[in-house]
Amino acid sequence: MMAMTEAAGFALAVVMVWCSIRELHWSWPLAIASSALYFFVFRDSQLYGEASLQVVFGLLALWGWRQWWRPSPSAPAHADSADTPATSGITRLSPRGLGLTLAASVLLWPLVSVFLLQFTDTDVPWWDGGVTALSLVGQYLLGRKYLENWAVWLVVNTVSMGLFAYKGLWLTVLLYAIFTVMSVIGWRTWQRQIH
User: Fold this and answer.
1) pLDDT beyond 70 at 86
2) What ranges do the domains of the chain cover?
């Protein structure tokens, strides 16, 4: 049963990231569905940070979906239509924004890791905590359409491959290898969209 759950989450996640690259608002409901499935995969693998992250991802997906439907100042005029999501509006982090992003990452990592160490039976609290912290930062940047979200996801996806290999989640290792490539594609695609 878990193999089927992982396979379904895998398929939905690949389509979700493809939709994010293409700035299709359908990425957000797909994120909710994929996160729900991966919650069970990670929980059963004692990756509690990752499991909890899936709940947060589901909630953030609702926020992200709303963000992408809001018109952006740089979006084309048709984006104001009630049935068309806002497109483009992709920006880069300012130096201050980059500093805040780095600070948030550095602060979240030990907070999440110590929580996992104290309150769960995970055998990888620091590894799981680091990936969880960076994923939260990446998800926020994605929702706000900052180009740098793809750089954060590149780090998350690369590190996650090792974590999931350690846990024997081989299909998920493949998923994160695909995500790694898609992070580079996402960066290049979004970079071309910046006005």
Assistant:
1) no
2) 2-69+98-193
